[in-house]
Amino acid sequence: MHNKRLVAVACAALLSVPFAAWAQDSEEESTSPFSATFAVTTDYVFRGVSQTDNGPAFQAGATYTAPFGVYATVWGSNVDFGEGGPNFEVDYNIGWSKDLSDSWNIDLGVNRYTYTNASSGYGDIDYNEYLAKVTWNGPVTVSGLLGYANDYSNSGAKQTYSALEASYDIGETGFSIGASAGYTTIKEEANEWPRRADYYDGSISVSKAFGPATATLGYYDTFGSDASLLRRESDTYKPGVVFTVSVDVP
Questions:
Q1: Taking the mean position of all CA atoms in its chain, how far away is CA 180?
Q2: Which residues form the signal peptide (predicted)?
Q3: CA-to-CA dists, residue 37 to 43, 63, 151, 202, angstroms
Q4: Helix or strand (DSSP H, E) at 229
């Protein structure tokens, strides 16, 4: 059973979420609609599960955002799903982000997950996920995320993911703390799969900004009865501490 077929992938920032930018023209200055991000991490963890067999990853992404909120993102990372599996993941995302007020934002999009350099017998695991995110920006930033894939990992399985995330900036120190909790459900039709797989993921993290760079130290885990079973098959579902340094280029 392919390791990747038991988890939903993306671009988080931790969540295969696009790195948003926006265009703003004035007589004094003009902000580019293009932005980019580069990162190195001790482990590419997505929704609580390692995508690099608990090894390091190098990642990069680029986003174009139109003035009316439509954006397009390309993001890539190395991956390791075991012998014969792909070596690279490239995600293509298109969506629409809209500020409903000074505090509320809605973000709707679709993400295409693609994988390359797999052996001929590994199979095609590319698939689409439809995403909806609502964010409240107050003293604490809180986001709710819902994802749905109708052909998860090109297997015919139906996958849903729901998550709640929160972050808090500690004054003018440049430090912020974050936490997240998510729930994955996979319903399959292929005989080789269990009829249903359900598990939770969670994380806590602390970040420090250094100009355009951000260093993040986080703890990630999966839990629930199905997660316990999955841990017996793979160490990628076990808890771990991850250190990441990212650089944003406006």
A1: 12
A2: 1-23
A3: 17, 9, 29, 24
A4: helix 225-233
pTM: 0.85
Distance (Å, whole) CA 101 – CA 103: 5
Q: pLDDT 10s digit of each residue in the chain, 250 long?
A: 344 444 433 333 333 333 333 333 333 344 889 999 999 999 999 999 999 999 999 999 999 999 899 999 999 999 999 999 999 999 999 999 999 999 999 999 999 999 999 987 888 999 999 999 999 999 999 999 999 999 999 988 999 999 999 999 998 899 999 999 999 999 876 555 455 678 999 999 999 999 999 999 999 999 987 877 788 778 898 999 999 999 999 8
Give rounded-to-5 percent helix, strand, coil for the chain: 5, 60, 35
In sequence order, the 6+-apart residues with CB closer than 8 A to the CB of 240 are 43, 45, 50, 54, 219, 220, 221
How do the domains of the chain map onto residue ranges? Answer: 3-249
Sort residue 68 into left (φ over 0), alpha (ψ -120 to 50) or beta.
Answer: alpha
The CATH homologous superfamily to which domain 3-249 belongs is: monomeric porin ompg (2.40.160.40)
Under 8 Å CB-to-CB from 108, ≥6 apart: which residues?
Answer: 95, 96, 97, 131, 132, 133
User: What six digits make up the tokens of 234?
Assistant: 């793979």
> Which 8-state DSSP code applies to residue 234?
-
Residues 6+ apart with CB under 8 A from 68: none
- Structure tokens, 25: 């023209």
